[in-house]
């Protein structure tokens, strides 16, 4: 009983850390393009690179951050990555050149393993049965921070100038460092860390060759890549699509307000999904089935966005899309950790983050060209990709069940 209480306390603490981290980030990052344009006169073709270099650095550093957390402990790596984030935001707030802007974004990408390590921490302190639900809570904390952060960042920028949100974000990241230092206990014992530093020759190793040969993990990463790819197509052009299609003919103020409200609907729907709907689904279905259910949610959400022309139907697509992502993402991460030895949980989550980052890099680079062809085309492409992904998703479910990695909930209930 005392151990359960300890786990609950640590889970609450890590969720608070994720929330504060995302609150700070979402205060600053949405206004970064305007900040770069107004303060540094960056060209519209250069500004997207501030996003790309972050994800490129995270793509390269993600597996290393995860591996270091396996070998030296979650808490010290979490602290170092959080310090890097705090320094990066301070550099953005004090930047006096374009080079400093890019350096800050690269630094944040390299040390930006906060969420990776936080999720690895969660997998350490929760049982396999509770893992997907607990990972869902981290996404909920992520979404909650993103609901309040942008509005707060806009208010700070309006009242105190465009640099204020970056400094407040740096303070928030520093608070997260202090929370981590004084409230979190290490989850990996010295013996486990020492063992994880030893050379490995079996399935507990996680080289690229091993990943390619690990069929279930490869399928999980493939689904994660294309799901994130379809999301990236939409994310980078959502505001442009809203202006050109959903709010066509509306005043600029109404367009801005309408798009902001739609994004808020996404955030609230994702929060409800991961705190209320996901726990309910987990009592009835295994994680591989949740990937299929969530994929259908994303599919229908994209189809709604592809055909609607009135803003009043926008919330339907937003809710379906948020439901799909809220169910699929934690389930995929949980399945990834179950496909490998527990000694490389951190590294496999780092691999997953790198795969997601690569998908964002490629999809955001293509999204503008696709949007120029036809404003709704990205939603049709995303829907087709998700429809195709259902085939490996069904195969993945059959593999996990056949190898007894998962037990169908219906069988568990019938045995009872």
Biggest sheet features? none
| Run of helices and strands | HHHHHHHHHHHHHHHHHH
Shape: globular
| Helicity, as a percent range | over 70%
Query: What is the terminal separation in angstroms?
Result: 24 Å
Query: What's the tally of helices?
Result: 18
Q: What's the count of strands?
A: 0
Structural class given helices, strands, pairing?
mainly alpha
Look at the structure and give the mean pLDDT.
81
CATH superfamily of the largest domain: MFS general substrate transporter like domains
- Quaternary state of this entry equals single chain
- Report strand %: under 5%
Runs in which pLDDT lies below 50 for 5 or more consecutive residues are: 1-7, 407-416
CATH class of the largest domain: Mainly Alpha
CATH architecture of the largest domain: Up-down Bundle
CATH topology of the largest domain, what is it called? Growth Hormone, Chain: A
Number of domains: 2
Rg, Cα atoms, Å? 21 Å
